[in-house]
TrEMBL record:
<feature type="signal peptide">
    <location>
        <begin position="1"/>
        <end position="20"/>
    </location>
</feature>
<keyword id="KW-0472">Membrane</keyword>
<keyword id="KW-0732">Signal</keyword>
<protein>
    <submittedName>
        <fullName>Outer membrane immunogenic protein</fullName>
    </submittedName>
</protein>
<dbReference type="GO" id="GO:0009279">
    <property type="term" value="C:cell outer membrane"/>
</dbReference>
<dbReference type="InterPro" id="IPR011250">
    <property type="entry name" value="OMP/PagP_B-barrel"/>
</dbReference>
<dbReference type="InterPro" id="IPR027385">
    <property type="entry name" value="Beta-barrel_OMP"/>
</dbReference>
<keyword id="KW-0998">Cell outer membrane</keyword>
<dbReference type="Pfam" id="PF13505">
    <property type="entry name" value="OMP_b-brl"/>
</dbReference>
<comment type="similarity">
    <text>Belongs to the Omp25/RopB family.</text>
</comment>
<dbReference type="InterPro" id="IPR051692">
    <property type="entry name" value="OMP-like"/>
</dbReference>
<feature type="domain" description="Outer membrane protein beta-barrel">
    <location>
        <begin position="10"/>
        <end position="225"/>
    </location>
</feature>
Length: 236
């Protein structure tokens, strides 16, 4: 009986000593590296833009010989809006955007005798449906874009019985830009677009061939209907 009591007492003393020794050793913290949230560009957006358009209108009036072949480059102010959708995979952003702009430009054209302009062209609107391919560096998005472009203009030949004629063009556009998310729901951007179109023949007592090209420089702001930053990821 004495031996059993001595063995039990020794076992209890050993366990108590081991527990006391554990109390003196601090617990190792669980390693947890929290990654800073990265901005997520996925989602719909709606916005507005303003800028300037250089219209390179190439006009050919066959009846005037060399005087009837000319190019004018009037600069127009523009204002409009855009809507689109982005989808982000890692750092690559795929997008689709549609935009429409009103152009407030002056008419320019061919001058006849006495300096009066016989033929005048005035840009009316620009529009496009474009794809976007970008690289996202957190809140900064660098992208290229291209797609179908639309352009409208008004032509006028200052001869009797010739009123203004409106013409609508379908062509293509390519460009590039950069966008930056100021907050989770607001972004600002700047971009350049080159638009190229086919030739339309106006009839003013004879054929007049008009082939426009456009160089667009604009800035804009978007409201992003998205969640902003992605979920915080914890690594163990």
């Amino acid at each position: 009986m004495k031996k059993l009591l001595l063995a039990t007492t020794a076992l209890v003393a050993f366990a108590a000593g081991a527990q006391a020794a554990d109390l003196g050793v601090p617990r190792s913290p669980v390693a947890a590296a929290v990654v800073a949230p990265a901005f997520n560009w996925t989602g719909f957006y709606l916005g507005a833009h303003l800028g300037a358009v250089v219209n390179q209108d190439r006009v050919n009036i066959p009846g005037y010989g060399a005087l009837g072949l000319y190019t004018r480059s009037p600069t127009s102010l523009m204002v409009g809006g855009q809507l689109g959708y982005n989808y982000q995979v890692n750092n690559v952003v795929f997008g689709l955007e549609a935009d429409l702009s009103y152009l407030a430009g002056s008419r320019t054209g061919l001058s006849g005798n006495g300096g009066a302009e016989l033929f005048r062209v005035r840009p009316d609107y620009n529009g496009s449906i474009r794809g976007r391919l970008g690289f996202a560096a957190d809140r900064a998005l660098f992208y290229v874009t291209g797609g179908v472009a639309f352009h409208g203009l008004t032509a006028n030949f200052d001869l009797p019985f010739n009123g203004p004629r409106k013409y609508n063009y379908v062509g293509g556009t390519v460009g590039a830009g950069v966008e930056y998310a100021v907050t989770n729901n607001w972004s600002v951007r700047g971009e350049y677009l080159y638009g190229f179109y086919g030739t339309k023949t106006a009839v003013f007592n004879g054929p007049v061939d008009i082939r426009p090209q456009t160089h667009t420089f604009r800035v804009g702001v978007n409201y992003l209907f998205s969640t902003g930053p992605s979920a915080v990821v914890a690594r163990y």
